[in-house]
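In response to the reviewer comment on reproducibility (Comment 2.3), we provide here a single inverse folding case reported in full, input and output, so that an independent group could reproduce the run without further information from us. The structure tokens appear first.
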């Protein structure tokens, strides 16, 4: 009897483990890797790009984040948002070839943005930090903007997020943050004003101590799609756990019921049973 129960218990246990794996995978998939969230993707406009940088090391903290900016379609303007405990530096460089921008020939443009942690500051294991820049104007609709990012840890380890994501294929192991430019807005002539308003809003969001609060709600809202994906995975996992638990209880009930039924049947046929005495 015990041998027949073992396969049933093993299958129920395996179901529970599989459901738990789905739960945790779904809840964390949307949070993994360095991501970029633009608050606007309209051609010719300016956009605040927010990089969410999670610390994926279990033993070291993140001390530096370097983002490479596009050179084939460069941004003529790049502004950084202050982050307490971090120094931001925008570096200009020579472009691979001259670019025509608004009738002018451009040979230099911002090529990297680097955030470096001050002494005693880092992104600790189990934490993440957000870094924002305001860039523009954005190139033509349909342009894919890739922003390879280099994440450096306190133990010297360097993680490059630089692999392109190809539509229709699985996401690579170390995808580069990226987004695609969309059609210009109807009021595209307000692009410069929007850029000024964004910078002013970020400055207003910083308190006297230098900490910056603006953009948090915007970033959280724009990241809602990723959170819904994580919530969906969590819901699927919970349903799986519930079904597996029901199956486990049914197996346990059947196993406990079988010996009792066998004992009752034996007592009814036994000559010395109470029914035989009455007869």
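Designed residues, in position order:
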């Amino acid at each position: 009897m015990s041998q027949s129960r073992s396969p049933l218990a093993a299958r129920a246990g395996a179901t529970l483990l599989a459901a738990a794996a789905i739960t945790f995978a779904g809840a964390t998939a949307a949070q993994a890797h360095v991501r970029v969230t633009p608050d606007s993707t309209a051609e010719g406009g300016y956009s605040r790009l927010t990089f969410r940088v999670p610390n994926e090391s279990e033993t070291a903290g993140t001390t530096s984040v370097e983002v490479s900016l596009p050179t084939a379609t460069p941004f003529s303007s790049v502004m950084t948002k202050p982050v307490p405990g971090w120094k931001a530096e925008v570096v200009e460089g020579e472009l691979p070839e001259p670019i025509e921008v608004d009738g002018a020939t451009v040979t230099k443009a911002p090529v990297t943005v680097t955030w470096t942690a001050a002494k005693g500051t880092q992104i600790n294991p189990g934490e993440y930090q957000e870094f924002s820049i305001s860039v523009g104007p954005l190139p033509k609709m349909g342009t894919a903007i890739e922003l390879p990012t280099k994440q450096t840890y306190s133990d010297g380890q360097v993680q490059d997020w630089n692999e392109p994501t190809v539509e229709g294929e699985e996401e690579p192991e170390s995808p580069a943050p990226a987004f695609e430019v969309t059609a210009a807005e109807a009021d595209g002539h307000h692009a410069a004003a929007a850029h000024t308003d964004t910078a002013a809003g970020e400055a207003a969001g910083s308190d006297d101590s230098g900490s910056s609060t603006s953009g948090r709600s915007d970033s959280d809202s724009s990241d809602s799609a990723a959170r819904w994906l994580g919530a969906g995975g969590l819901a699927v996992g919970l349903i799986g756990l519930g079904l597996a638990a029901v199956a486990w209880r049914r197996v346990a009930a059947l196993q406990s019921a079988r010996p009792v039924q066998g004992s009752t049947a034996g007592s009814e046929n036994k000559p010395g049973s109470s029914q035989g005495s009455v007869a």
